[in-house]
Backbone:
RNA sequence: GGAGAGAUGGCCGAGUCGGCUGAAGGCGCUCGCCUGCUAAGCGAGUGUAGGGUCAAAAGCUCUACCGAGGGUUCGAAUCCCUCUCUCUCCGCCA
């Protein structure tokens, strides 16, 4: 969330931000609510002060065996008033907090104002889309003829938007996860963590999925538990309510988790294939950094994610999300989009964001500067490094051959018993 | 699932019959003194959030916080209720 003082002092900027993000929110009545809140607070605090003073007095009178009945009677009334005002305050405070939690983050100055995703500027293009001397197939055609992906049986055992992986397809998914984790831990200095795949609502509020995006989540019946929509949630919350030391920053974590999303409101989209699933695997990168370094850290995080695609030899481009497309909690986001020949387009495979202190304030993640007693909020960042299912999609589509086989990217072969080419599901590893 | 014990400040730990307890004592930490250096010793300080005051910061001041929420009371760390978490034992289980 935003700093309340910032909202008060910069109402104009905040309301421009709401416009640029196309968010409909009545800032004016929020600020009025704040006024009411503070005036009641002032009143009730004055009454509490009086009560405290009188309490001491009563204690003294009683110690001296005097008669305090009159003071007690007075205070009984004051207490009643306090109770009434506290109740009023709680009501206002609640709707006030609700609104504050619904105000999105301020975009960074470098983020362009746009109307929708078509206004996202392309900031980089890497690699050449491969040339085919045949009509490239979609990944679901490639995969189903190899027998490595099975959507039909998955739909039968669960429902739409789930996949069953067979044989080397399953092994490939596992290989990609290992490859990504190895690269980030060994080359980029991230510490591997394996968090719970279920989190509570407090954690989801901390990172910004709740209260606004409840409909996107899978909730466990009768529990305050949700399946993680991304590892960002548990990993960022590792340090919730902690005060870190300046010397401990920056902290880099990487985690593999499955991700669960209800995909409410995307019923017609990407109905075939692996692109949009209720469950998918992802390796995530999360950083906790000092405010003054967070934008340099974002560039590095993006580069770390890009390395995976470069090592796999998959062509991609990077776009910077415009104000209309920017996520609720983010100040700035780069999307990496991988080339998919089967769809003749670039598709999102990673999203790298700087949240500045927005999540840190919600989750209460602070740090203490050396030699200073006061604390500051850290800046948090995260990015996919990468979405594993979509990486498999990209490999299947970019590395497919005329005969229906798929050439395994060189870097991945050690993870697959040095198999060079996928020709069937039951392929035996060569060593 | 059954039985019991507990949750206090950065940490340990005290809080009697509810009343100067934001919280004794110790450790740690910071600054200063002392010292040939280190250690020891001595002195002072050392939570968070919110409100008010102030152009702003500092400062001053008020309010709240002893796992969370509610209740009793003029007044609750202390009494009552509910919940959460931790620990021990039994059962079950990967």
Residues:
């Amino acid at each position: 969330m935003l700093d309340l003082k910032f909202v008060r002092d910069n109402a104009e900027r905040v309301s421009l931000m709401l416009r640029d993000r196309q968010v409909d929110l009545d800032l004016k009545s929020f600020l009025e609510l704040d006024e009411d809140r503070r005036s009641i607070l002032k009143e009730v605090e004055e009454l509490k002060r009086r009560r405290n003073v009188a309490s001491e007095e009563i204690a003294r009178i009683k110690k001296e065996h005097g008669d305090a009945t009159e003071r007690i009677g007075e205070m009984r009334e004051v207490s009643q008033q306090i109770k009434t005002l506290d109740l009023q305050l709680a009501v206002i405070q609640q709707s006030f907090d609700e609104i504050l939690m619904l105000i999105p983050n301020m975009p960074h100055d470098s983020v362009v104002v746009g109307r929708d995703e078509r206004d996202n500027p392309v900031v980089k293009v890497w690699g050449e889309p491969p040339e085919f001397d045949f009509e490239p197939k979609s990944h679901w055609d490639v995969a189903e003829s190899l027998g490595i992906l099975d959507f039909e049986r998955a739909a039968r055992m669960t429902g739409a938007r789930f996949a069953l992986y067979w044989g080397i397809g399953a092994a490939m998914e596992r290989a990609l996860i290992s490859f990504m984790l190895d690269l980030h831990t060994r080359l980029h200095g991230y510490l591997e963590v394996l968090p719970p795949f279920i989190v509570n609502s407090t954690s989801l509020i901390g990172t910004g999925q709740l209260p606004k995006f409840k409909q996107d989540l899978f909730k466990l019946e009768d529990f305050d538990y949700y399946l993680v929509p991304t590892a960002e949630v548990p990993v960022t919350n590792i340090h919730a309510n902690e005060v870190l030391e300046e010397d401990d920053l920056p902290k880099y974590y990487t985690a593999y988790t499955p991700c669960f999303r209800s995909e409410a409101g995307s019923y017609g989209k990407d109905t075939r294939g692996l692109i949009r699933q209720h469950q998918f695997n992802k390796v995530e990168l999360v950083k906790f950094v000092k405010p003054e370094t967070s934008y340099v850290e974002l560039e590095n995080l993006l580069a770390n994610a890009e390395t995976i695609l470069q090592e796999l030899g998959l062509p991609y481009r990077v776009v910077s999300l415009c104000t209309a497309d920017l996520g609720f909690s983010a100040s700035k986001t780069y999307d990496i989009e991988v080339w998919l020949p089967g769809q003749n387009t670039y598709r999102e495979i990673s999203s790298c964001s700087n949240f500045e202190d927005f999540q840190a304030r919600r989750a209460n993640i602070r740090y203490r500067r050396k030699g200073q007693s006061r604390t500051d909020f850290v800046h948090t960042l995260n990015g996919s490094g990468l979405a594993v299912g979509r990486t498999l999609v990209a490999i299947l589509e970019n590395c497919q051959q005329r005969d229906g086989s798929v050439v395994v990217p060189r870097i991945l072969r050690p993870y697959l018993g040095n198999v060079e080419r996928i020709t069937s599901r039951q392929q035996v590893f060569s060593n």
The radius of gyration of chain A is 27 Å. The mean pLDDT of chain A is 91.
